Amino acid sequence: MDSRLAADLAGLPDLLTAARDYAAGVLDGLDERPAAAPPANLVPEPLPVTGVGAARALEMFRERWAPGFSGSAGPRYLGFVTGGATPAALVGDWLTGTFDQNAVTRQDSSAVDLERETVGWLRSLFGLGDGHSGTFVSGATMSNLVGLAIGREWLGARQGVSVARQGVGALGDVPVLSGAPHSSIYKALAVLGLGRDQLRTVPLLPDREAVDVAALEAALAALDGPAIVVANAGTVNTVDFDDLRAVARLKEKYQFWLHVDAAFGGFAALSPDHAHLVAGLDRADSVCVDLHKWLNVPYDAAVQFTRHRDLQLNVFQNAAAYLTPPEGDPDLFHLTPENSRRLRALTAWFTLAAYGADGHREIVERNVAAARRFGARVATLPGVRLLAPVRLNVVCFAVDGAPEVLAAVARSGEAFLTPTVHQGVPALRAAFANWRTGEADADRVVAALGEALAASRR
Q: Domain of life here (predicted)?
């Protein structure tokens, strides 16, 4: 064994203690850590021929790289709908690395059963029935891709072909209809060979990002055969929701696969005041929910639900002499593109076990309250205009001199927001999804925006 590796093994308890103490210090200072950090433009160093050992590597990381890391786990990082990691989720993440389970097979571990228990908890959390099975994936993009891949197979079955066996060329053109699709839907269509150009956007309701269901019905009626419909449960800019019950009712008249992108909007189900927004979610053929957003577990973790596991097996099954067959209750490598992966479910299991549905409901409702407070206060600043009601946890607003203001807020370290364009208007969006965030944080971000606006006018 390499001498440094042997020394680190012998001193592993002290190394873990040092890492714990450093991590605790980082978390203790997270409230004041700059929300955004500009890249340091460090010149890459060559690969070490002789290593320095783990203790020195930790020192090197602290000196060279840590100063350039953002406070994305903190309460005023409001970009990309980024959650943090609850204390229990962080414990789960550390133990995920400790046990290092390849969580796709029952042949040597109970990790798959833990994942299935966690999926059951999540199914209950989002109001889905037993007809929906679920599997962990890396994020919303992969969840959308898996759901649309199963939908592609369903379309093939309507024509008497198996795309998984015969290829996408056997399918012909596939109409995909959606009102305000997330960019990852286009990416998924490209990867699946269906093509970005196959997505046909359907008119929206006036001043909304929700699909006009009458227009959707007209588009379906004009088709010669089955289609894929991508509905939204929480759009990126304004967290708008398609009427899922009305969209699902169209399945009584038209043949289509209903995929619902509920990446973070699905968490509306946790709040009695907002659960109506996702009514009808259980009618979907496939559902995307991103857990490293509002469940506040570390990257990367999402879940994919479907009511058609048989078709999912057609697409993703993997045959090899050393693997279990896909019959019965299949191992998880038969259900997603990955043949091996970490036990992503453990962080979700820990945070759900620790805080339950009530604890996570409190996070959602507190974030919504912070977003509403932010929206009400930021709208009073000169040069600011709200572009949509604050429906849930994202505030979309136009600002005079937006690029300069956005950069000034980031430089201040007080907050990080992201730019967008809403209905042709350049805008900013503030997404509240962190378990630490409260109304006091909203006030600090408003103050930072006010200072940046005042500076831009001088």
A: Bacteria
